[in-house]
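Q: I have 239 residues here and want to know how they pack in 3D. Can you give me a structure?
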Amino acid sequence: MCVPVAVALGHMLPRLQQFEAACLLHDIGRTGLDPIVFGKIWSWAKQEGIPTRPREWRAKYPRTPYGQESQAFLTRYGHRLTQQGVELTPVVLDHINMRLGFARRLKTCLGPMKAQLKALGIEWAPWMERIMLYYYYPEKLQTAAKWVHQLGEILVACEQLEAYSNHQRGQDYYARSEESFQAAFTYLRKLARQHIVSQDVLETICRLTREGCFTTILRQARGGNLSSAEQRYLASVAA
């Protein structure tokens, strides 16, 4: 989904090859994720109003040392998590790092991939990791070139559009029981109001959606079928 958006916004090869690789690998920091363990931790945290992303954690607890969000979570809420029947085993601690310590975990998991990418003719560049971290760590792109920032926005927006549309992923990964295209685009508009996604990126995604560019992918996210109402919504969605 990301590549046609980037093409529409004027990005060219070979940058697109690197961008596509970064998009395909953007969640590799969650290698080994157990949906049941992950869901127990983060659905409970969401229900309790506990921040579940580093940028949200720092907004609520600004005195937390940068990069220590996982440790701060355990200090504040570890005992309450155990009261929910979630023992703080190494596996559970690892799943906490998959969210609040994502930067460290991504760096660890990316290491072996760089040589494999080079063998495929794709050179790794530091900006690729930064856009992979943008959703959780938007500050990492504060001083980036405009084109890098835009690629980070595209990755975040497309990932969220697919995630909010995908029934299976919503159940396994986000502990949600209902997904809708309306909710997906409502969230994208929220990201635009928060200046995580620019209006240019949002409008381009909406236009490509209306033109049917993402219909096959979104149909797959729905398990193979789109209702008439869903098709009408996608054909008319606006930023």
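Q: Anything worth noting?
A: Residues 2-236 form one domain. The CA atoms of residues 97 and 104 lie 8 Å apart.
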